[in-house]
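Is this the right way to post structure tokens for a design question? Let me know if I should format differently. Anyway, here goes:
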């Protein structure tokens, strides 16, 4: 099996040994002189492609892309010594990992590289005096670009494969839940919405909440579509939801003489959803895998599958979502004073408290150590902060049980960040982490929104 690091280093060794130092230095000076122009031209040209706009249109992406593109050009063409090769190879791998994380199509990466090569070749033919000179320099430019893109692609494929396996593992994990209990829970959620609607109609309310915005609707759009990926019933339920929210509900306003008939049709649609859902649940068997062994929360390896899906949903019209990164304050002191067994009990109880404080459509992960990450679907920053504060206060006001009928009082700090359009979910988590750091700097036991 190929060792990517050794392979990349061998390729760059070959380039340095093939092309003389004077010519490489001259190309380096050319790139340094035009790196900003190359980066801006890259952005302008790529933005003309509809497929690329989805990844490049965000203002923050443009700002960071320009700077990172300049650094990348200056690095790959500034590589003049053998000692600099390992860092250059690692840089290409990191770029490839980012591309995989945001699902950037690999053909766009190749298209961008082609733009750079074309522009650099134009500069070379204008500056170099003879065909023999510019041909040698042109071959060098092409090899540097090709090796760079090759190493990015190698990292891209590896990480994309890991993501695919994680997504499937997450789907299997979700199937390991007690599906019989979840089936009844969602069945009750549909019936609750139906009863609330009937009450609203009889009360003369003018605004009727659609089924898609109900507890069941949120669960269906954010979790069921992953759990039951590929099931025919997913599309069937989707069609019924659409019919209810866009046709039946609007038709119920101002038509009291037809209300009984409309309600009968609505009840038939509700029964259809319950039937499709029951069929869908019953097709799958229970599995037992996929949770963090201590807290029983979602394992962190499922984070890419969940976050990538929420990013795509938010970008395509489902609204925003938010994350809250919690950290138990002074957790080391808990372990020091009560042993790791006491620390485990504290972590387990807080995990249960958080899981019971959010909706079935939300996600709760053990992010690492005493850090817990909550993904709140279709929730903005202010509401997410209110939810985070509610959880923080519950922890503050509920002494936690230890062995021997002892209790301990702990606090938590939290950082809140809402999706801002950036395609890389890691950007969102870093913002939440920065807010968490600020909360701790302010004295802990507080939740803050990312700036």
């Amino acid at each position: 099996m190929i060792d990517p690091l050794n392979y990349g280093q061998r390729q760059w060794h070959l380039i340095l040994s093939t092309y003389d130092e004077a010519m490489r230095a001259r190309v380096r000076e050319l790139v340094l002189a035009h790196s900003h122009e190359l980066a801006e031209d890259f952005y302008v040209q790529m933005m003309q492609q509809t497929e690329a706009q989805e990844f490049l249109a965000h203002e923050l992406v443009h700002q960071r892309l320009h700077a990172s593109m300049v650094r990348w050009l200056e690095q790959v063409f500034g590589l003049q010594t053998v000692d600099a090769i390992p860092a250059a190879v690692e840089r290409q791998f990191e770029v490839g990992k980012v591309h995989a994380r945001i699902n950037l199509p690999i053909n766009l990466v190749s298209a961008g590289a082609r733009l750079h090569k074309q522009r650099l070749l134009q500069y070379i033919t204008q500056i170099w005096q003879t065909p023999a000179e510019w041909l040698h320099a042109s071959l060098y430019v092409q090899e540097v670009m090709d090796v760079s893109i090759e190493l990015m692609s190698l990292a891209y494929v590896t990480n994309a494969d890991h993501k695919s396996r994680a997504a499937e593992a997450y789907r299997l994990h979700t199937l390991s839940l007690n599906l019989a209990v979840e089936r009844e829970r969602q069945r009750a959620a549909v019936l609750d919405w139906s009863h609330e609607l009937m009450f609203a109609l009889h009360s003369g309310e003018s605004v009727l909440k659609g089924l898609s915005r109900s507890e069941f609707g949120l669960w269906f759009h954010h979790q069921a579509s992953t759990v039951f990926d590929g099931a025919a019933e997913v599309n069937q339920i989707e069609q019924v939801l659409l019919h209810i929210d866009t046709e039946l509900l609007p038709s119920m306003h101002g038509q009291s003489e037809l209300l009984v008939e409309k309600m009968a049709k609505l009840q038939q649609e509700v029964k259809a959803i319950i039937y499709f859902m029951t069929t869908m649940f019953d097709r799958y068997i229970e599995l037992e895998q996929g949770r963090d062994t201590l807290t029983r929360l979602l394992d962190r390896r499922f984070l890419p599958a969940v976050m990538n899906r929420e990013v795509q949903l938010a970008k395509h019209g489902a609204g925003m979502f938010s994350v809250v990164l919690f950290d138990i304050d002074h957790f080391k002191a808990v372990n020091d004073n009560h042993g790791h067994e006491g620390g485990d009990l504290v972590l387990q109880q807080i995990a249960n408290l958080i899981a019971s404080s959010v909706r079935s459509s939300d996600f709760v992960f053990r992010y690492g150590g005493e850090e817990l990450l909550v993904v709140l679907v279709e929730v903005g920053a202010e509401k997410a902060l209110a939810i985070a504060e509610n959880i923080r206060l519950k922890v503050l006001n509920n002494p936690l049980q230890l062995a021997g009928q002892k209790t301990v009082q702990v606090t938590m700090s939290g950082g809140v960040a809402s999706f801002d359009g950036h395609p890389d979910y890691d950007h969102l988590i870093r913002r939440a982490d920065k807010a968490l750091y600020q909360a701790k700097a302010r004295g802990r036991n507080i939740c803050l929104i990312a700036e």
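Format looks fine. Someone answered above. Worth noting: Residues 285-289 have pLDDT under 50 and may be disordered. The radius of gyration is 28 Å.
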